[in-house]
Structures are given as structure tokens and as C-alpha cells.
Amino acid sequence: MPRPRVLLAVLVPLLALLGLTTPAQAAWPTPVPVVSKVSTDDPVVFITIDDGWAQNPAAAKILRDRNVPASLFLVSDAASYGVPYFRNLLDHGPSRVENHTVTHPYLSSLDLAGQRAEICGARQRALSTFGLEPRLLRPPYGVYNEDTRIAAGACGAKALVTWTHDFTTWGSWQPPTPQLQAGDIILLHFTDDLPADLNRALAAADAAGLKPARLRDYIAD
Ligand SMILES: [Zn+2]
């Protein structure tokens, strides 16, 4: 017969997952780490692309032609509008789908249950739409609190990822191109400017002697 302590160790995470205990009672799962830059000596950078409302064919061609292992932080509702586009990227290249919530809210404005619904809901949608499990969470707008880190862990993410440099052009405003360093996380968005922004990011990586690598492979389980 299992000892009570052993039984508790099994039951408490289960109840937390089901939303039947508060995290304070359960003390599980532990908050996931927040990563804005990877600590590594490898000559690598990480290309991440957010949202998914615009599906630009030229951007997909660059990703495929250069075999870029991009992390696609797709909003579930946006991904649903472009399933063939994203499926093509996932099936014919090393990119992976990651978690950017279902509806792109300010997560810190939601309670823990609301955050869990957004994050676990996006995981479920990625599984049902693409058959692939997101392992990283990027909170919309880069805004999060302690509950976000707890909910992320409960929804299968191993880290909350922000970014080191934002290369996104919005309208006529283009950010200055930084000198990239090993481990930098580059933020891009699925917009009509993505081809130019992506080329700028890849050229900056080339200039620094760095190669794009898959972000989830550099984050410990
Ligand atoms: Zn976003």
C-alpha cells in the first residue's frame, strides 16, 4: 500500500492540473524560467516569428530556401485562418509551432484560471490543428506576471520566452539593426514586411558569423 506522502505527491499535481486546488496549496507546478537570451558559446541566434494574421508567401520561401529553424509563436485564432500556410512551413522545414495564447490578451490582466485557459487552450489547438505540441510560451506584448509562469508550466511549456532584439518594421518605422551576439533571440512578426525584416535578421546573423538554431533545443527540460 503506498504511503500517504507518496500518494500526495501524485494527487496534488493532478488536482492542480484539473484546477481543483490553488497553486499555493499544491506548490506545483513550479514557475517556468523567463528567457530573453540564451546563455551559450555556440555561434547561434534564434529566429522567432509571432502572431500569424498575415501569411506572406515570400517569407515562407525564404524560410524554406534557407532552411531556417524558426519558432512560430502562433495565436490560435490567427493560425486557424492560415492552416495550409503554416502546415507547409512545419512539414517542409525545421520550424516549430510554439504558444502565443488563443486570443492574444494581456495575460497579466487575467487571473490564474483565465491565463491557464488561454495557454492550455492554445496548446490544445496546436495539437488538434497541427498534431504538434508547443513547448515554449511567448506572452502577448511580452507582458506577464508570476501566474503566467505557473500557468505556462501547467500547460506543458518549459520556458516563458521574450526576446533580445526586435527586428519588426511597423508602418514606416524600422528599428535600427543591432550587432548580434551568440544566444540572441530575434523577434519578428507575420506582417507584409516580414520578408524584408527576415532578410535583415539573417544578414545580421551572417555578418556576426552566427547561424539560426532551434530555440526549444537550447532550453532545458
Ligand atoms: Zn503577438
Structure description:
The chain is an alpha/beta fold and 221 residues long. It has two domains: 1-30, no CATH class; 31-218, TIM Barrel. Helices cover 37% and strands 14% of the residues. The radius of gyration is 18 Å and the shape is globular. The site of zinc ion has 5 residues, from strand 2.
| CATH secondary-structure class of the largest domain | Alpha Beta
Bound molecules: zinc ion
Helix-strand makeup class:
alpha/beta
The largest pleated sheet is described as: 6 strands, parallel
Per CATH, the superfamily of the largest domain is Glycoside hydrolase/deacetylase
DSSP helix fraction: 25-40%
Could you give the count of β-strands?
A: 9
Shape category: globular
The CATH topology label of the largest domain is TIM Barrel
Tell me the series of helices and strands, N- to C-terminal.
HHEEHEHHEHEHEEEHE
